[in-house]
Amino acid sequence: MNKWIYYFGTNGGEGNAQMKEVLGSKGAGLAEMSNLNLPIPDGFTITTGLCNYFYKNNYSLPENFNNDLVIAIKNLENSTGKVFGDHKNPLLLSVRSGSRASMPGMMDTILNLGYNDQVCDALSNITGNEIFALDSYRRFLEMYGSTALSVSNGLFKNAFEMHKSKCNIYQENEITGDFLRIIVEEFKKIIFNHCGESFFDPYTQLEESIKAVLKSWTSDRAITYRKLHNIPNDWGTAINIQSMVFGNQGSNSATGVVFSRCPATGENKLFGEYLVNAQGEDVVSGTRTPSPIMSDKPDIDYSMQVVMPQIFEQLQGICKKLELHYLDVQDIEFTVQNGVLYILQTRAAKRTALASIKIATDMVQEGLITKQQAIMRVDPESLTQLLHTAIDYSNTLSPIAKGLPASPGAATGIVVFSPYDAEKMSHHHKVILVRHDTSPEDINGMYVSAGILTARGGMTSHAAVVARGLGKPCVCGASDVVIDEKKQLFKIGETIINYGDLITIDGGTGKIFLGEVPLIQPSFTKEFQTILDWADEFATLKVRANAETILDASVSMKFGACGIGLCRTEHMFFDPDKIPLVREMIIAPDIERRKHAINKLLPLQIRDFKALFRIMHSKAINIRLLDPPLHEFLPTTEIDKKNLADVMNLPLAVVEQRLHALYEVNPMLGHRGCRLGISYPEIYQMQIMAILTAIRELQIEENINTILELMIPLISDVNELKILKTHIQDVITNMEDTNKCKFDFTLGTMIELPRAALKAGEIAKQVDYFSFGTNDLTQTTYGISRDDVASFFPDYLEKKIFAFDPFSKLDKEGVGELIEIAIKRGLKNNPTLKLGVCGEHAGNPDSIEFFHKIGLHYISCSPYRIPIARIAAAQAEIKRCG
């Protein structure tokens, strides 16, 4: 028989922190806090199994569940001394979702469940606080109506604002009992007009609320969030039902969110916000801007540390206790009811990459966790937040406004006012989403935006939490920002910013600037460098860079590459001073004209290679000889064709005839790679001469000894390799004789065609190393061009033909198996064969774990993926060691 319900509270919990699969993250946390004897309201958790049953059985609940639910309520009545639905001493409940992975704000919550007219009167009499009783009633009506009964939330909000305006109410403290009575009756009327039925029976409310929370698991916003954060759809959500504690009972009550360390910077001090006389949703929704838990500024006298010093001390102690228990930073929700503190939830805090690294390294220094644990806590993909631009404050800049620094980073973009417009405009522009406050429905718009700016809300609001999770710059609570959605503009004083205008936000300082401002490349913090150094201690898979320009090579060195794993020489040919000579070389009608163009290219290639080798300074450099089809270099416009004809002193017709002769139906599978080297051996000969000349000159002039690796692309047959190997050796021998020296090098090939993978045993006899080109290997294995997948791939993913994009994450079962076959056959015939990979997959953490598992020696990725790859490589080894 299924156990649907687990209890927690003052008498301990039936579950524990390890039961997230059954109880969800929130339920497991409540059970664990019960076992730690922390002050939490009594309640029970309905398991994730009920959610899965609900969806498998046409939105119905199990037959025995209702009986279990009644028993659970009776137990809760016994522990609290209150009665559910009673008119004298009523028990009111909160109903909250709780998946095993945190999904902040994405699913539904209902507070004050069990309310009706009689309960409202009873609470008014018990507390002597009519405003509290009526305020709690109107909150329940709005939440229950919009969540369980599907009434548009806008109807409630519009009615509330309309009556506030009629009654000349502008501040929360101006709300009266008479006003709230009007609102309660108005809200009841809205619900009755929508569904035409009574909803005052408490058990009916409870059942409908449970179903509503379960249904919110498949809401659009929840599905989108799970997709963005790779959370499986079949996990389901648990439901936590607790006796209500009220933060809106007056000036001695409050509600808030606190982090045991700052989730934005990682600083080791309490960080959070609270609202006096409010309920929890007021803080996270962003509809009101809260006060800080603590402040370093003596002139701020509204922090909890000042206003509620005893509660602050108690909360600080609980935060420390929970952090030491979990050995991780905690995100804690709390309520203060008439001077008594209650903890409603604890979970591992979502944090920025900057904070993640500082917290992890600090905890190692504090002796709380090991280096391995610190490395495993860093999400490699999140490091992209630290590798992009920030505002250059060395210039004189004048912000037009300032809000709260909710999520670090700088972003420039055009102003949009809705998630719909953000999605539409993001195809062509970077956008800044400007809102009064964000809601879970805004998740798609937030995801595509470069940054988020809200007029309301604090640093623990929905906008702030989600932005930090997405790695987006965010400024919240910019109270000077006055938004007029109807006119599609916002004002800051006399300044008007219209839809489509450019603004820049700094999520690290909260500053807002008009237009575009200068940006600078980020610098590593000492903690970032420390965690990367630790990663290198454990990683066995070396990380190289794909680089061929001075800029790429410089960035690669800065980010800790141990060499270049792919230098694409064709990129050098696209420089303005070389492309005319390359075209002349290709179009040349005879070998003499071709050699003439090549001889003019040679000194330019020598210059480029010297610059590259100088930066890498004795680190290994793997140079791929010319790979792409020749058509990529050829002119396409009439004016460029004419210019080429003039330069070569040839009739335009001859040039056009030559261009036509070079035309290919499918060039990516045509005359490219090693096939070019065989058809035009003088091209590869020139490249090798340039490489060796650059090496020799640097040896003599600057005492730099380059570790050279020469790589032949697109081999499909060992005979191609044998021919080119002979050509290469002839050039090198001639250069050695001429220079009276010996050139050390290793020769390798790319394995990027299925036949090459299958024939790897024969190929391995001819080379020193393999470099797997997973981009082309994926294309040729699937028979899909990655340049053309956009037209049908979304459909394939939606229909679950493919579980993921194989051009982003390696297909281990297909492409991965070919790589394993090639490794096995290659090593059999050449036990000293070195193995690397240089496709886009080399920067993907999931793929890196696979490459580590199958025994590659190095991975080579784009420069800005190097820190990600270094952490992922270390994590792969740590996982292997257990």
TrEMBL record:
Pfam families from the UniProt entry: PEP-utilizers, PEP-utilizers_C, PPDK_N
InterPro entries noted in UniProt: ATP_grasp_subdomain_1, PEP-util_enz_mobile_dom, PEP_util_AS, PEP_util_C, PEP_util_CS, Phosphohistidine_dom_sf, PPDK_AMP/ATP-bd, Pyruvate_phosphate_dikinase
Recorded catalytic activity of this chain's protein: pyruvate + phosphate + ATP = phosphoenolpyruvate + AMP + diphosphate + H(+)
Gene Ontology molecular functions: ATP binding; kinase activity; metal ion binding; pyruvate, phosphate dikinase activity
EC number of this enzyme: 2.7.9.1
Transmembrane segments: none
NCBIfam families in the record: PRK05878.1, pyru_phos_dikin
Membership in a protein family: Belongs to the PEP-utilizing enzyme family.
The name this protein goes by in its record: Pyruvate, phosphate dikinase
Organism: Candidatus Tisiphia endosymbiont of Sergentomyia squamirostris
Taxonomy of the source species: Bacteria, Pseudomonadati, Pseudomonadota, Alphaproteobacteria, Rickettsiales
Gene name per UniProt: ppdK
